[in-house]
Amino acid sequence: MAELDAFRAETRAWLDANCPPSMRTPMPEDEIAWGGRNAKFKNPDSKLWLDRMAARGWTAPTWPKQYGGGGLTRPEAKVLEEELRRIKARPALYSFGLWMLGPVLLEYANDQQKAEHLPKIVRGEIRWCQGYSEPGAGSDLASLRTRAEDKGDHFLINGQKVWTSYADQADWIFCLVRTDTTKKHEGISFVLFDMKWPGVEARPIKLISGSSPFCETFFTDVQVPKANLVGKLNGGWDIAKRLLQYERQNISSSGFGSLGGGAGLELEDIARKYVGEENGRIADADLRSRIAAHRMEAKAFALTVRRVEQEAKAGGGVGPAASILKYMAAKINQERCELMVEAMGNRALGWEGEGFSKGELQATRAWLRSKGNSIEGGTSEINLNVVAKRVLGLQDHQ
Amino acid sequence: MAVLTEEQTLLRDAAKAWLRAKSPVAALRKLRDSGNADGFDKAAWREICEMGWAGILIPEALGGSDLGYASLGLVLEETGRTLTASPLVASALAAASALLQGGSAAQQQAWLPKIASGEAIATLAVDETAHHAPERIALAAARKGDGWALTGRKLFVLDGGSADLVIVAARTSGRPGERNGVTLFLVPGNATGLTRHKLATVDSRGVADLEFADITVGKDAVLGPVDGGFDILEATLDRARAGLAAEMLGTATQAFEITLEYLKTRTQFGQLIGAFQALQHRAAKMFTEIELARSCVEAALAAIDSRANDVPALASLAKAKAGDALHLLSNEFVQMHGGIGMTDAHDAGLYLKRARAAEAAFGGSSYHRDRYARLAGY
């Protein structure tokens, strides 16, 4: 305990001295630090903050020091997390490498691959994207067809991915490819390659929200050295599933709401502002009641996330409650966005221009974007299938 | 499931084993069919008290075990599974909480040992209309000589027909709707002027309407400050709500497990009905509601034990979410069983009836959503 207290004191002192004041304010979407070769830092403090955190390995607090991580124990990492939250520090780095790829490389990759890729993830030098879904392989991901032919010392990759988040801005891709066409799940391999290599092309897809966070990604005779295969040949499905667990876990614990629009206001504040008050209550009783119901559901969800973490820490592993988190995170953010738009009334229906405030336009875009929450990272229907089959033990239809 | 201490694990396992053997759902059915007007089985209650469950909240010096609310919640979750009807909620949870929150040393010494041993059953009388509305207390208490005279009615009092002690929330000043002016009184069950009307309700528990006709009590019958009893009442109600929510969580969980088992055994169209995706997704949503409710119930009980300052919001959250989950589960219990679920011979109906009674007690989901918003200032 005393050691943890000492660590807390040290951490607090270091953060006081090293977290720039502007990094302790709410983060607008255009100031997120995604890192990468072409990293843009609208606010120079973002770069300073990233570099300082990365130098200590604190962008990946629990990863081993030999791979650039912080080498912290779980309790220490929790202290760091608490201290960061206490000063409302922005995350130093947003990164699929940190959230998804890194953990599976630690588990499945060979030493050379770990030494090559992990430190660059920690420092935010390389930005990764995820080559999973294909036009014909969405919920049924294992039916993917992007082909990797064995050419002796390398694979020759041909095919197409879709919904590849930020592929147009990413440096490298972790990609599921078919290395055996005679089998389904057992014919998939997990490979890593550079988006700059010949034959790779990413085209952004414009969404209903007007933004283009996703791409179509095409591969035409891309040569990938065999050293870039992670794990066993045809053994990629297990890695793919494990990575999805990390993806859903990350969505679950952070939720979808961190950039949800509404200029950092809670729903009840938005309703007070746009609907008005009577006797200290939101004037629209029906809306007030639905906001309260939503806030309670969101609180129940937050308590469940905390409970899952506590149970895991106590050694029980990840309990069955964890299986509902991604489904709930999507549902809650979508409901929040709908209520926000409803509370703002016509002021949430602007698309662009001076007629609407920045917060109002953000709310509109966030609402439209939220429709993807129940699709990306596994649809809600697939989530419910997983609960029914793996947790409740219900059979497949014959 | 929260991380339990060894003592808590033993307590829960003992409760589970005893309830399965001595107080299964069949016991409630028997109680109902025997026309028992008390709403609980005296022999079973004696055993429950011998096992110490009635004293879980009560300090050791006063005959209890002082294990706290999370521990009592574990027991209540188990009694909720088996629909065991006993004065645990009214006496060991609600009334004991009132005495612990606001009772003088003399009042605690007079009543808590008896509540712990089961020698006395106590209850809390709050509601005066068809709905839970503690803010609108009207039952009048006027000064009379050195003491007070109580006149009015209390409705749907849990175990009100058999209670030896009724803790009554009365109005000593102000108007219904005002927090100030509420005072709590200890009124013996055999007080002159107290008329009790036992009610036959769907859940077969012992609920009664109480009429107070100029009942005289001494000044030592006042629990907590005169006119300032509302804070104690609210703290008491929050403890009762969180505890009852634990019982409801148990009831919902049991309903879910029985329904899930049915999905895995009932065949139609040459399939187990649990293989149909329409039912699978409903089952997964039921599971989700129960898991969310569990988090709320455990958080509320833990907050009470650690004297956290968000007990009111968490108690309302727990009562509402456990209520929502139980509401859903009790309906799906019947629906997914089809015709058999509509028969009196099946247990689904008993769960449905208990569900609505428990949902209404100490405030339904709609009351608690409104309160949650009020507490947050909107």
Q: Largest contact between protein chains? A: A-B, 46 and 40 residues
Strand residues, percent of chain B: 15-25%
Largest sheet of chain A: 4 strands, mixed
CATH superfamily of the largest domain in chain A: Butyryl-CoA Dehydrogenase, subunit A, domain 3
Specify the overall morphology of chain A.
globular
How many domain modules of chain B? 3
Number of domains of chain A: 3
CATH topology group of the largest domain in chain A? Butyryl-CoA Dehydrogenase, subunit A, domain 3
Q: What's the helix-strand series of chain A?
A: HHHHHEEEEEEEEHHEEHHHH
What does the radius of gyration of chain B come to? 21 Å
* CATH top level assignment of the largest domain in chain B: Mainly Alpha
Proportion of strand residues of chain A: 5-15%
Within the largest sheet of chain A, what's the order of strands? Answer: 1-4-5-8
The CATH class of the largest domain in chain A, by name, is: Mainly Alpha
- CA gyration radius of chain A, whole angstroms: 22 Å
Largest sheet composition of chain B: 4 strands, mixed
Amino- and carboxy-terminal Cα gap of chain B:
32 Å
* Sequence of strands across the biggest β-sheet of chain B: 1-4-5-8
Spans of at least 5 consecutive residues with low confidence of chain A: none
Description:
The complex is a heterodimer of chains A (398) and B (378). With 398 residues, chain A is α+β, with helices and mostly antiparallel strands. Chain A has three domains: 93 residues, Orthogonal Bundle (Butyryl-Coa Dehydrogenase, subunit A, domain 1), CATH 1.10.540; 108 residues, Butyryl-CoA Dehydrogenase, subunit A, domain 2, CATH 2.40.110.10; 137 residues, Butyryl-CoA Dehydrogenase, subunit A, domain 3. A four-stranded mixed β-sheet of chain A has the order 1-4-5-8. A four-stranded antiparallel β-sheet of chain A has the order 2-3-7-6, with no helix packed on it. A two-stranded antiparallel sheet of chain A has the order 9-10. Chain B is an alpha+beta fold. Chain B folds into three domains: 115 residues, Orthogonal Bundle (Butyryl-Coa Dehydrogenase, subunit A, domain 1), CATH 1.10.540; 105 residues, Butyryl-CoA Dehydrogenase, subunit A, domain 2 (Beta Barrel), CATH 2.40.110; 145 residues, Butyryl-CoA Dehydrogenase, subunit A, domain 3 (Up-down Bundle). Chain B contains eleven helices and ten strands. In chain B, helix 7 packs parallel to helix 9. Classes of the chains: A alpha+beta (398), B alpha+beta (378). At the A-B interface, helix 7, strand 10, helix 8 and helix 11 of A face strand 10, helix 8, helix 9 and helix 11 of B.
